[in-house]
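Async update (no meeting this week)

Hi team, since we skipped the sync, here's where things stand on the single-chain job. The sequence we agreed to prioritize is pasted below, unchanged from the tracker. I ran it this morning and attached the output directly underneath so nobody has to dig for it. Comments welcome in thread, and please keep replies under the output.
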Amino acid sequence: MSSPAALSKLQRPLRDLVFGAIQDGAKDLGASEKDQAEVAEWIGKIADGVVGNAEGLKDLDATLTPRTYVVSNYLTAADVALYGALHPTFSQLQPVQYYATPALTRYFDHIQANPVVRKSADALKPAFAAVTLDFSSAPPQERKAPEPKKKEKKEATTAVPPPEQTRESSASASKKERAKKEKTVSAEGASEGKKEKTSKIAPAPAEDAGEPIPSMIDLRVGHILDVKKHPDADGLYQIDFGEETGARTVVSGLVNYIPIEKMQDKWLVGVCNLKPANMRGVKSFAMVLCATSKDGKEAGIEVIDPPPNSKPGDRVYFEGAEFEGKVPLSQLNPKKKIFEAIQPGFITLQSREAAWINPTTKSVHKIRTASGVCTAPTFVGASLS
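Output:
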């Protein structure tokens, strides 16, 4: 463990918050010399009041837009200190104010929900009581396609020829111009009715262009309002996803594995941007995310649970700077099989936490809301679909 001398600059109770988190597992001042230098720099700025004040929220938001943590890719004392410094400000902000800094708000909520930070903060109540953030009315973040690069026009330099050369050139130019006009007239008849390729404008990239990534999938917290048996053995669910248009009808075969009475009033995670599909003569508008036992369906299926105190429509996302803050596609194109490409990486960890494992890098990205990680009731190593 690195020396905590840099932390002595912090005032109490902020210093107590950071020391408490260090004792419970935060990587104190960094795992490498480079990280230690960055953590010490952040601690110094926080102690001096340079960061963490209300005036600097916009700058912090820009800094944290591509990051999950302020230093490297793991929790450090700098994150705990920054959370503590931001706490007095965030506890007073109204939704319209923290909506203006989405990356910073996501970061603050992520750090305060960390078990190590939460334990230390709860021991110091009411100084660092959990701040409830309302994301139900947050404006959607737009996924902007990259703007096409504009070609720079080169300025033509015109050399002025001598008078004699100008007269000769003019005569030659006149002959060339007449020949050019004759060719143009004959060419117009041949090309009539055809569109010139040069007049076409290149279309903007599609929002689902590129390799499929998990953040393209729209996952949300749902609440079952009603469920009944379909004549053809499937179940008809009315699920509230927090939309003004009302509950969505979902057709599912879960009744073959989970009794209806256990599904009544159930909270769940739904895939909400699949193309609506006709199933058993009824149109289904979402899919319930479930864990299938590693021993197969016959060994059991469980509905993935969102964190406690979730609300209908709460956004469910994948941890990691490359995914957090991304806007899912409005609708998955069935022909591109995006969900099918991502699904093999879905799994429940030893902790029963739902996650996606990148098949290339083997990095683990937990599936969570702003309040915590989604879990399976009992299954470990289960496939999610």
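Quick observations from my side:
The mean pLDDT is 80.
Residues 163-191 form the longest helix (29 residues).
Reply here if anything looks off.
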